Amino acid sequence: MKRALPLIALSATLLASAQSIAQTPVTNWPSKPVRIVIPFTAGGPLDALTRAYTDPMSRKFGQPFLIENKPGAGGNIGSDQVSKSAPDGYTFLFTTTAIAISPSYYKSLAYNVEKDLAPVSLVCLSATVLGAGNKFAGNTIADLIRLAKASPGKITFGSSGVGTTNHLSGELLKSLAGIDILHVPFGGAAAALTSMVGGQTDLIFASSVELASRIKAGQIKGLAVTNAQRTPALPDIPTIGETVPGYESTIWYGLFAPAAVSKDIIAKLSAELVPQVNNLEVKQKFDAFGTVLMVSRPEVLATKVRDEIAKWRKVIQAANIVPE
User: I want to staple 100 with a disulfide (CB 3.0 to 4.6 A). Which of 108, 128, 261, 308 is the partner?
Assistant: First the structure.
């Protein structure tokens, strides 16, 4: 027991230190550069989306908001790093729906999504699009369902990888529509798109960020979007839910902080995101990527994470999806 006392004392000291950091007054926040960790490869849509809303805040606060890419393990390396960062308000995580898929997809995580990260705000929503090559026989979801039921397991759909939102969007369609189409995973959306355009695969589930311009140019067909509502980026393309009741799969983007960060800092940052919705410069940048800028209170993002974890757990278990 005597040997345990120093450890207890040390734990108490560390806890007090963390609480002290979290309770630091925010009147001078930020007084140094703020780090935004993106848990995916540099150069992707997340980088551009992050700059779209952080550039105005950098000018407002007089401190740079710096992007740091920490890819790996489906976004979990960067997420884990932020969860263990000092809760001083200078490290945040900007991530996607993937963070709500990981708890069910991976057998174990080094962090707890709901306990170790504090939600700050939803930032935007992006549709996943079900695209098809121009040679594909169908033009609608009804056509796809008819063709799939006539030839079970013959129609293929590509995605950016096993366990991704794009993959699970396809599995959800299979479940709700009662069809059998074959998933073909790739190492990214670009490779999946190349395969479909080349005729090796029939369909693709990918974000509107990646497909909207090609659909508008007539290079590929857009059969449907996965959101509950039609997306402004592709207003003439119906939702899957218009044909398959109850279907909805949205890619959302959210901002998180280490769990012990001051609530005042979260409130200050969240409040500063609100004006971005009406900032024409910011809105145009988000529109160009086929995303809808949508900020929220922290508790709205917390509810979103909880609901999405439960939703995707059912899909993953039903399809028996395991990491490769």
Answer: 308
Backbone angles phi, psi at 34, to 5 degrees: -105, 135
* Burial class of residue 96, CB neighbours in 10 A (0-12, 13-18, 19+): buried
Distance CA 101, CA 136 (A): 30
- Say if CB 14 and CB 84 are below 8 A apart: no
Inter-residue contact 82 to 91 (CB < 8 Å): yes
What's the CATH number for 32-126+251-319?
Answer: 3.40.190.150
Residue in the structure block whose two tokens are 């999504």: 113
Q: Which pLDDT does position 288 carry in this prediction? A: 75
The structural domains of the chain, with segments of one domain joined by +, span 32-126+251-319, 127-242
The CATH T-level fold of domain 127-242 is D-Maltodextrin-Binding Protein; domain 2 (3.40.190)
Q: Is 144 a residue whose pLDDT tops 70? A: yes
